Amino acid sequence: MYMCKNCPLHRFDYFDEFSQEEIELTQSCKAGEMRIEAGTPLLAQGAKSPQLFTVLKGMGVRYRTLEDGQRQVVNFVFPGDFLGLQAAVMEEMKHSVEATTDMHLCVFDRKVLWKIYRSSPERGFDLTWLAAVEEHMVAEALTSVGQQTALERISWALLRLYNRACAVGLADNAGVVPLPFRQQDLADAMGLSLVHTNKTLAKLRSDNIADWSDGRLQLIDRAKLADLAGTDADLEKRPLI
Amino acid sequence: MYMCKNCPLHRFDYFDEFSQEEIELTQSCKAGEMRIEAGTPLLAQGAKSPQLFTVLKGMGVRYRTLEDGQRQVVNFVFPGDFLGLQAAVMEEMKHSVEATTDMHLCVFDRKVLWKIYRSSPERGFDLTWLAAVEEHMVAEALTSVGQQTALERISWALLRLYNRACAVGLADNAGVVPLPFRQQDLADAMGLSLVHTNKTLAKLRSDNIADWSDGRLQLIDRAKLADLAGTDADLEKRPLI
DNA sequence: CGGTACCTTGACGAGCATCAAACCCTGTGG
DNA sequence: CCACAGGGTTTGATGCTCGTCAAGGTACCG
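Output (structure tokens, whole complex):
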């Protein structure tokens, strides 16, 4: 089990720096660690989760299920993500989270939220910040799904996924990142059918722009991809809890 | 100028109740009031707003602009909404806000955020809660835009707008609410073209399900509309600041 | 009156969904 | 060792939804 001061995520610039006191507070809130296997549901829509998690390792999907069984992937889950905050401040979870790969999680009890707000205004602020970052990411996705064509959406998503993976040190020397999701996950995230998603990915591959296959993503012509995506904005820096 | 204890929004069940101390804290943070005309931009994407606003009266749209000029309406703005929080916790505004009608706003200085976190854990919690509610609303919209047909999306949006208007007391006896937006706004919110939005609204009208015309919305067959929308969930209760 | 902003309606075609089938893998059991 | 099943990917054929283009209607305003 990691001590917070040795947290493997600290070293990435993507995360906001924090003070000695903040580390100690986080440490004192930490209830333990947990490992789950690929495919395991972690949080369920409608449930009232007593726990909060910070992802230390692994990836997953955050999704909403409609009454008729359709699924909207709201966001992909990466290391550093803080899960369950919505359930903690609102009544219940508004979405589900499922592990795509094996995951390592840092576990907090829901009750520590109050401890955080009471003992550290800075960390309370950070919780709001985390929620704001999530809203921003969802709003960006909404913009892409609402306004762009299939090719643009897929390009946007691949670029975003690549950047997020890089931000937590997952890129190898050749500029390849692991991307263990199914094409169906991407389709459900971007509001496209599986078939059309597949054909669009094939086009990006044959045009030598990006290649996502065998669970690995490589950007071959990043400029072209960013052009299609309509943006190549830097990721927002964000706090880590 | 209203005293917070006489805030016209308190009385609605939609908002979380709060204590005497919370009212006093809010009052001590309030910098003043402001009125703006219909059509005025209130917050601009990319800007670093020094102010936060609570909407007392009026409506607006919150939208993101793409490089090529396309527009995604992220949410509609109603009384009780707290604007500018994202700019306050992140570096800058990630979207713009424009008044659709004349608006009355309660104004706070950005600096009071720290005062709130320091002096009241409960109100700090509420700020996170507000951000979480916003994320939830955007995620719901993403689900609709990503998974539903035009008829379903428009139905979902009308029902949601109706419920939000009712929650702040805008319905008259006949079950009609004011809805001063343009069809283009709804189209940009739901990822549809103006023409198709218009035809879809016409269909709902001729099928005697819902009638939005002349800036007024009436639900004629609410059950049918909810059926098309896929849901008629209650609005999340939320804090008011 | 001409101009602008918004709503409405029809015709046409493209983008994407749907259907169907085949092709991988990998794991499992006879 | 091979048959088989299951999960995921790939590809082709077909057609519906929805975007685009175009034009006209109405109200309001200078």
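The longest strand of chain A covers residues 30-36.
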